[in-house]
Amino acid sequence: MTNVTDPVPHRRSERSAHYNSARGNQVKKRIYLSLGSNIGDRAKNLRSGIEQLGDLGTVVSVSSIYETEPVEVTGQQPWFLNCAVAIESELMPRQFLSRALWVERALGRRRSGTRSPRTLDVDILLFGDSVIQTAELTVPHPGLAHRRFVLEPLAEIAPEVRHPLLDLSVRQMLEQLPSNAGAVRRWKEE
Questions:
Q1: ∠ CA 18-34-76 to the nearest 5 degrees?
Q2: Residue 7 falls within a domain, yes or no?
Protein backbone atom coordinates (compact mmCIF):
# COMPACT_ATOMS: atom_id res chain seq x y z
CA MET A 1 0.00 0.00 0.00
CA THR A 2 1.32 3.44 -0.90
CA ASN A 3 1.25 5.72 2.12
CA VAL A 4 2.93 8.97 1.13
CA THR A 5 3.45 10.74 -2.12
CA ASP A 6 6.04 13.46 -1.91
CA PRO A 7 6.67 15.24 -5.20
CA VAL A 8 9.19 17.66 -3.65
CA PRO A 9 12.52 15.80 -3.25
CA HIS A 10 13.78 17.69 -0.19
CA ARG A 11 10.76 16.72 1.90
CA ARG A 12 10.85 13.65 4.09
CA SER A 13 8.54 10.83 3.15
CA GLU A 14 6.85 8.52 5.63
CA ARG A 15 9.30 5.80 4.58
CA SER A 16 12.41 7.89 5.35
CA ALA A 17 10.91 9.09 8.63
CA HIS A 18 10.15 5.48 9.51
CA TYR A 19 13.72 4.48 8.68
CA ASN A 20 15.10 7.19 10.95
CA SER A 21 12.74 6.26 13.76
CA ALA A 22 13.77 2.61 13.48
CA ARG A 23 17.35 3.80 14.05
CA GLY A 24 16.30 5.72 17.16
CA ASN A 25 16.01 9.18 15.58
CA GLN A 26 12.36 9.97 16.27
CA VAL A 27 11.26 12.92 14.16
CA LYS A 28 8.55 15.12 15.64
CA LYS A 29 6.11 16.61 13.20
CA ARG A 30 3.70 19.45 13.80
CA ILE A 31 0.22 18.28 12.90
CA TYR A 32 -2.69 20.67 12.49
CA LEU A 33 -6.18 19.35 13.19
CA SER A 34 -9.71 20.64 12.86
CA LEU A 35 -12.15 19.43 15.51
CA GLY A 36 -15.90 19.78 15.20
CA SER A 37 -19.01 18.74 17.12
CA ASN A 38 -22.68 19.38 16.50
CA ILE A 39 -24.53 16.97 18.79
CA GLY A 40 -24.53 16.48 22.54
CA ASP A 41 -22.54 18.85 24.75
CA ARG A 42 -20.50 20.27 21.88
CA ALA A 43 -17.99 22.20 24.01
CA LYS A 44 -17.42 19.25 26.31
CA ASN A 45 -16.92 16.98 23.28
CA LEU A 46 -14.22 19.33 21.95
CA ARG A 47 -12.47 19.64 25.33
CA SER A 48 -12.53 15.86 25.83
CA GLY A 49 -11.26 15.32 22.31
CA ILE A 50 -8.34 17.72 22.84
CA GLU A 51 -7.49 16.03 26.12
CA GLN A 52 -7.49 12.54 24.56
CA LEU A 53 -5.57 13.71 21.49
CA GLY A 54 -2.86 14.77 23.93
CA ASP A 55 -2.05 11.06 24.21
CA LEU A 56 -0.88 11.16 20.56
CA GLY A 57 1.78 13.80 21.23
CA THR A 58 2.11 17.24 22.78
CA VAL A 59 -0.72 19.70 22.26
CA VAL A 60 1.13 22.94 21.54
CA SER A 61 -1.71 25.25 20.55
CA VAL A 62 -5.52 25.38 20.61
CA SER A 63 -7.61 28.07 18.96
CA SER A 64 -10.68 29.68 20.42
CA ILE A 65 -13.90 27.81 19.85
CA TYR A 66 -16.04 29.01 16.96
CA GLU A 67 -19.71 28.37 16.26
CA THR A 68 -20.16 27.60 12.60
CA GLU A 69 -23.00 27.19 10.19
CA PRO A 70 -23.31 23.64 8.85
CA VAL A 71 -21.99 23.50 5.28
CA GLU A 72 -21.46 20.54 2.99
CA VAL A 73 -23.91 18.47 5.07
CA THR A 74 -27.02 16.49 4.27
CA GLY A 75 -30.36 17.74 5.62
CA GLN A 76 -30.89 20.17 8.47
CA GLN A 77 -28.27 19.91 11.19
CA PRO A 78 -27.44 21.86 14.35
CA TRP A 79 -24.64 24.41 14.17
CA PHE A 80 -21.15 23.12 14.90
CA LEU A 81 -18.57 24.14 17.42
CA ASN A 82 -15.12 24.01 15.81
CA CYS A 83 -11.55 24.65 16.84
CA ALA A 84 -8.05 24.08 15.50
CA VAL A 85 -5.36 22.19 17.37
CA ALA A 86 -1.62 21.90 16.79
CA ILE A 87 0.09 18.75 18.06
CA GLU A 88 3.72 17.72 17.91
CA SER A 89 3.99 13.95 17.50
CA GLU A 90 6.45 11.25 16.54
CA LEU A 91 3.64 9.07 15.17
CA MET A 92 3.57 8.25 11.50
CA PRO A 93 0.51 9.39 9.51
CA ARG A 94 -1.32 6.03 9.50
CA GLN A 95 -0.65 5.55 13.23
CA PHE A 96 -1.86 9.06 13.96
CA LEU A 97 -5.01 8.61 11.87
CA SER A 98 -5.82 5.29 13.52
CA ARG A 99 -5.51 6.79 17.00
CA ALA A 100 -7.45 9.92 16.08
CA LEU A 101 -10.30 7.73 14.80
CA TRP A 102 -10.17 5.84 18.09
CA VAL A 103 -10.62 9.16 19.95
CA GLU A 104 -13.68 9.92 17.79
CA ARG A 105 -15.19 6.51 18.61
CA ALA A 106 -14.35 6.83 22.32
CA LEU A 107 -16.37 10.04 22.38
CA GLY A 108 -19.39 8.43 20.76
CA ARG A 109 -18.80 9.03 17.04
CA ARG A 110 -20.81 6.62 14.94
CA ARG A 111 -20.31 6.91 11.22
CA SER A 112 -23.90 6.56 10.04
CA GLY A 113 -23.30 8.22 6.71
CA THR A 114 -21.31 10.85 4.94
CA ARG A 115 -21.59 14.29 6.53
CA SER A 116 -24.02 13.19 9.22
CA PRO A 117 -24.23 14.85 12.67
CA ARG A 118 -21.35 13.92 14.97
CA THR A 119 -20.25 14.10 18.57
CA LEU A 120 -16.66 14.65 17.44
CA ASP A 121 -15.01 14.94 14.06
CA VAL A 122 -11.21 15.08 13.84
CA ASP A 123 -9.75 16.12 10.49
CA ILE A 124 -6.02 16.04 9.82
CA LEU A 125 -5.37 19.28 7.94
CA LEU A 126 -1.57 19.31 7.68
CA PHE A 127 1.04 16.77 8.76
CA GLY A 128 4.30 18.70 8.85
CA ASP A 129 4.98 19.60 5.24
CA SER A 130 4.06 16.12 4.01
CA VAL A 131 1.85 15.41 1.04
CA ILE A 132 -0.01 12.15 1.67
CA GLN A 133 -2.38 10.29 -0.64
CA THR A 134 -3.74 6.92 0.47
CA ALA A 135 -7.14 5.28 0.39
CA GLU A 136 -7.59 6.28 4.05
CA LEU A 137 -5.89 9.66 4.25
CA THR A 138 -5.27 12.70 2.09
CA VAL A 139 -3.05 15.49 3.43
CA PRO A 140 -3.28 18.40 3.05
CA HIS A 141 -6.98 17.97 3.72
CA PRO A 142 -8.74 18.41 0.35
CA GLY A 143 -11.23 20.96 1.74
CA LEU A 144 -8.71 23.02 3.69
CA ALA A 145 -8.46 25.98 1.31
CA HIS A 146 -12.26 26.25 0.86
CA ARG A 147 -13.67 26.04 4.39
CA ARG A 148 -14.07 29.12 6.54
CA PHE A 149 -15.00 26.94 9.53
CA VAL A 150 -11.51 25.39 9.27
CA LEU A 151 -9.44 28.39 8.21
CA GLU A 152 -10.78 30.90 10.75
CA PRO A 153 -9.66 28.87 13.82
CA LEU A 154 -6.47 27.70 12.08
CA ALA A 155 -5.51 31.29 11.22
CA GLU A 156 -5.70 32.12 14.92
CA ILE A 157 -2.95 29.62 15.81
CA ALA A 158 -0.98 29.30 12.55
CA PRO A 159 -1.59 32.24 10.21
CA GLU A 160 1.72 31.93 8.35
CA VAL A 161 1.82 28.12 7.98
CA ARG A 162 1.85 27.33 4.28
CA HIS A 163 -0.16 24.82 2.30
CA PRO A 164 2.53 22.55 0.78
CA LEU A 165 0.82 22.29 -2.61
CA LEU A 166 -0.77 25.72 -3.05
CA ASP A 167 2.14 27.63 -1.47
CA LEU A 168 -0.35 29.92 0.26
CA SER A 169 -0.39 30.75 3.95
CA VAL A 170 -3.45 29.99 6.07
CA ARG A 171 -4.05 33.74 6.29
CA GLN A 172 -3.92 34.08 2.49
CA MET A 173 -6.35 31.19 1.97
CA LEU A 174 -8.76 32.74 4.47
CA GLU A 175 -8.54 36.14 2.75
CA GLN A 176 -9.33 34.52 -0.62
CA LEU A 177 -12.56 32.87 0.53
CA PRO A 178 -15.80 34.28 -0.87
CA SER A 179 -18.04 36.02 1.64
CA ASN A 180 -20.69 33.28 1.29
CA ALA A 181 -18.38 30.49 2.54
CA GLY A 182 -20.46 29.87 5.68
CA ALA A 183 -21.06 31.87 8.85
CA VAL A 184 -18.39 31.63 11.54
CA ARG A 185 -18.43 33.46 14.87
CA ARG A 186 -16.35 33.17 18.00
CA TRP A 187 -18.31 31.17 20.55
CA LYS A 188 -18.90 32.35 24.09
CA GLU A 189 -19.72 29.73 26.66
CA GLU A 190 -23.09 30.37 28.27
A1: 135
A2: no
Beta partners for residue 87, in sequence order: 31, 59
User: Is position 42 annotated as part of the catalytic site?
Assistant: no
pLDDT for the residue 179: 84
Q: What is the pLDDT of residues 6-27, one digit of tens each?
A: 333 333 334 334 444 444 567 8
Residue among 106, 96, 87, 98 at smallest CA distance from 45? 106
Residue 155 sits in a domain whose CATH number is 3.30.70.560
Of the candidates 30, 42, 109, 148, the residue annotated as catalytic is 109
**In contact, 175 and 150? CB cutoff 8 Å:** no
Q: Is residue 93 part of a domain?
A: yes
Does 121 participate in catalysis according to the annotation? yes
Is 109 known to be catalytic?
A: yes
Look up the pTM and report it.
0.84
Per residue in 52-94, pLDDT tens? 999 999 999 999 999 998 887 767 888 999 999 999 999 999 9
Is there a catalytic annotation at residue 6? no
Catalytic residue, chosen from 6, 123, 129, 147, is 123
Is the previous residue joined to 140 through a cis bond, with omega within 30 degrees of 0?
Answer: yes
Number of domains making up the chain: 1
